[in-house]
Amino acid sequence: MAQGALAASFAVSGTHFQVSSQKLTSSGxxxxxxxxxxxxxxxxxxxxxGIGKATLTDICQSAQVRTPVGTVxxxxxxxxxAGAVTADSLVIDGEDLVGDARFGTAQIGRDAASLDAVPGxxxxxxxxxxxxxxxxxxxxxxxxxxxTGGNFRLKGLRVSVRLDGSKCF
Length: 169
Description:
Blueprint: E1 17-26, E2 29-37, E3 43-57, E4 59-67, E5 70-78, E6 85-103, E7 106-111, E8 128-132, E9 135-153, E10 158-162
C-alpha cells in the first residue's frame, strides 16, 4: 500500500484482474515500484499508481476465478450512459497500464519519498518514482493485483459471475 494513502493494508488474493476504461482523467498521478504479497507470502512486483480525483468512463473489471463448478469470470462494469465513475485517492497496484496519455506536467526519476502529486502516496526514500499533474489517458487497459480508493461512485453498476463469461479484453 502507499504510505498513508488509505488505512487498509491486505494480502492480495493471488489472482490478478483486468481493468479497462475508455477514458481516465485525474488531478494528479504518483507512481513507484512496489511489491504486493499474497496470503502465502509470494511477492508480485507492481507499479503502484496513485491517482488523485479520478473520473473514468465505461469501466470494466474482470477476473477468472476457479470454483468447484469450474472457472468463472467475475465481472464488474459501470459508467456508460449512466454517467462517469469517480473515486478519490484511487490506488492501483498494476503490472501494466496501456493507453494514449497526456500529462499536464511530468517528473520522471523523482525520489519516491518526495512524491506529492497525490496526497498520501509516496514510496521509500531512494526509490525510483514519477509523478504528473493533471492527466488524461484514453483506451485504458491494465492487469492489476489490487485497487483501493475512497468515495467510489459507480453509476450503472453491474456485477456478474458466469461460467461462460467474457473478460474485459
